[in-house]
Structure formats: C-alpha cells, structure tokens
Amino acid sequence: MTETDTIIFDTANRIFDDLSTPEVINAAEEGEWPKALWQAIEESGLNLTWVPEANGGIGASLLDGFAVIKAAGAAALPVPLAETLMAGWLLSKAGLEVSSEPATVGLGEVQYVNGVLNGTINAVPGGRSAKQLVVVCKDGNDWLVAQVATDQCQIAAHNSLAGEPFDSMTLSDVTPVQSGVLTGGMDADSVQAMGALIRCVQAAGALSAALELTIEYSMERVQFGRPIGKFQALQHSVAAFAGEVAAINAAADAAAEALSRADGVVDHEAWVEIATAKTRLEEAVNTGAAVAHQVHGAMGFTYEHRLHHLTRRLWSWRDEYGNETVWAKRLGEEVLSWGADELWPKITAVSNA
User: Fold this and answer.
1) Which residues contact 130 (CB under 8 A, 6 or more apart)?
2) Could you give the CA distance from residue 349 to residue 329 in angstroms, rounded to a whole number?
3) Which of 66, 167, 271, 342 is the most buried (most CB within 10 A)?
C-alpha cells in the first residue's frame, strides 16, 4: 500500500469500528438512519473515494475504493456506502458532478424519451435510504447515466434478507437532475459486472470477519472440559471455512486488480475475473455461513450478536447482480468463445495476471 492507501484504509476501519456497532445496525433495521455514521463518512470523504477531484471527489484509485468496500463488508455497514461509491463512479464516467448524499444505482426497464424517465426498477439496494438514484438506460444508440432525486420516485418498500431496504422504485415522467453518456463502450452489462464485483468484495470482507469471530468463539466456548476449538472435527470444519475465505478473497482481489488495470472499463480480462469471483461466491458463502453458525450455535442468531449481521448480508449479496448460475453461464460462454487452441494460453494468462 502507498501512504495514501494506508490513510484511507485506516480511516475507514476506525470509523466503521467505532460507529457500526450491533446496536446501530439493529436500530437501522428498525428504520433509524445512522446519522453519526454517515456524517463521519461524509466528513472523511470516503463516500467520494472513486470520484475525481474535477467532479467534486477525492480522486483515489479503484483499489482504494475496493479496500473501503471490503472494510464496509467486514463491519456489516448499515448505510449504502458501496452503492454510493458505485453511483459516484458511474456519474464520473459520464463527466457529471457528484454530491455527497447517499445514493444508489438502478438497473431495470427504464425508458428515456423526450427528456423524461419512465419505468420501474425492482430490488434497488438501499432504495429509500438514498437521496439520489442513478439510472442506467438506453438513449438511442448510447447508454445514458441519469441522476434523479428519490423523492421523485414512487417507492414500494421491501427488505433484503439482511433487513436492509431493497425497494421497487417507479419513475413516472421524471426529469433527471442531470444526465450524460457513458464513455469507454460501457453498457448495462458492464454496470452489472461492476455491481457483482462490489458484492464479491463486500462478501470477502464479511466472510473474513465471520471467520475471525468463529475462531475466537471456538477458543472461548468450553465443552467437556476444553475449548471446542480443540476438537478435531470442529477444526476440520473451521479449516474448510478458512479455505473458502482465502479463495473468495483471492478471486475478488484478482478481479479488482484486473478492473484497475483496465482503467475502470470492464474488458475481457476483467470480465473473466469478475465472472470467476461471482461464480465462486456462492460456495464460499454457503460453506462459511453454515460453519460459523454451527460453531456459534444459538448464540450466533441472537439479536445482539454480530454474526447474524454478517451472514444475513452474505446470503443477500450472494444473489445480487446475478447469482452463481447466471455468472457460470456467462463464464462458460466466454471460455467457449476462445476455441480449443486458445483455451490453455488464455487460462494461464489470466492466472498469471
């Protein structure tokens, strides 16, 4: 890490450790906005990590932003910081200004005709908690990024498995606050791939935190006169969990680095890495969450315990922006397009990147 990288990562961890407590997360699930947490995020500029200085941000690198997102996942952050970073990234790609307000991104059947937006977007993460909605839609032959105020949308409230807003948002003749054309050949598939990668990075952080909690608890909980972590059967389960954590962290980091090398545009190399990570995510979540709760027993499900904040988010993130089946199919189609002669060179080239 550079000095700047370290400062950003340390700042994020300090804020999240202090202000994303089980009490704050539980209150957020009851509808109470974590004002102090978001204020600290705004004051530090973490919500504008991916926004260039020319567009009102701090101009940090993509990898800096992914480090913040991983830390947010580990803290089960109850505010849409990852969605705000993605919204700012998209607006910047279209050369637009970015506000510091909480924001989210909508991908769905939205039509842009005569300067207004119409349509419904289902399952918008952080929907009613956000002040701005960034919509990706077609404008003739171009892909457009449009920003609208969420109070201009009709919101049908729904919650994700994590108890967070996951709303349907309807736009009826809504005039965007601002709009612009996506550059670099980006389209809706590219935006979905970015969302999938963000979920993988968040999940990598959350799984790492869950593993740490599991190891600590296994050494504290005594059964038959010794810590349960000393029993061989449990050690094998925790070792399997650790392997899954290592695998998803490696896959997510490789995808983030590939996207960074592509300068923020989802090229073929980055596409393969993202598809690989999202395909791998389901097994990591299924195995990791199961072991964590088996070790904790009923303790991990109690309202005050931190574990269920992590695992419920993991179960939700696992399926967002395309589940394992969707991304495995896309990865398979990409590999088949290489042909027999290119298969081995391509695999080794991706592995060595």
Assistant:
1) 80, 83, 84, 101, 102, 103, 104, 150
2) 21
3) 66
Q: What is the mean pLDDT of the segment spanning 68-89?
A: 97
The whole-number average pLDDT for the span 221-239 is 78
Residue type, 216: E
112 in helix, strand or coil? Answer: strand
Evaluate the CA torsion angle 106, 110, 114, 116 in order and state its sign.
negative
Pairing type for strands 166-174 and 116-125 reads antiparallel
Distance CA 307, CA 299 (A): 9
Structural domain ending residue among the three candidates 181, 211, 246: 181
Same domain, 13 and 123: yes
What is the C-alpha separation between 191 and 69, in angstroms, rounded? 17
Contact 305, 296 (CB under 8 A): yes
Distance of alpha carbon 119 from alpha carbon 98, whole angstroms: 24
Taking the C-alpha atoms of residue 257 and residue 277, their distance in angstroms, rounded to an integer, is: 12
What number of residues does the chain have? Answer: 353
Q: Specify the pLDDT at position 353.
A: 46
Domain's final residue, options 181, 212, 244: 181
Q: DSSP labels for 92-116? A: HHTT----SS-EEEEESEEEEETTE
Q: Name residue, tokens 């972590």.
A: 229
Radius of gyration in angstroms for the set of CA atoms belonging to the chain, rounded to a whole number: 20
**Residue range 251-266, pLDDT digits in tens:** 999 999 999 998 777 7
Task: Copy the structure tokens of residue 302.
Answer: 């109690």
- Do 143 and 277 share a domain, yes or no? no
Q: Say how many CA atoms lie within 13 Å of 338 toward its Cβ.
A: 17
pTM of the predicted model as reported, rounded to 2 decimal places: 0.94
CA 274, chain centre distance (Å): 12
- What whole-number distance in Å separates Cα of residue 327 and Cα of residue 333? 10
Q: What percent of the chain has pLDDT over 70?
A: 96
- Tell me the pairing of strands 226-227 and 166-174: unpaired
Same structural domain, 120 and 258? no
Distance CA(302)–CA(241), nearest Å, equals 22
State pLDDT tens for residues 153-187. Answer: 999 999 999 999 999 999 999 999 999 999 888 89
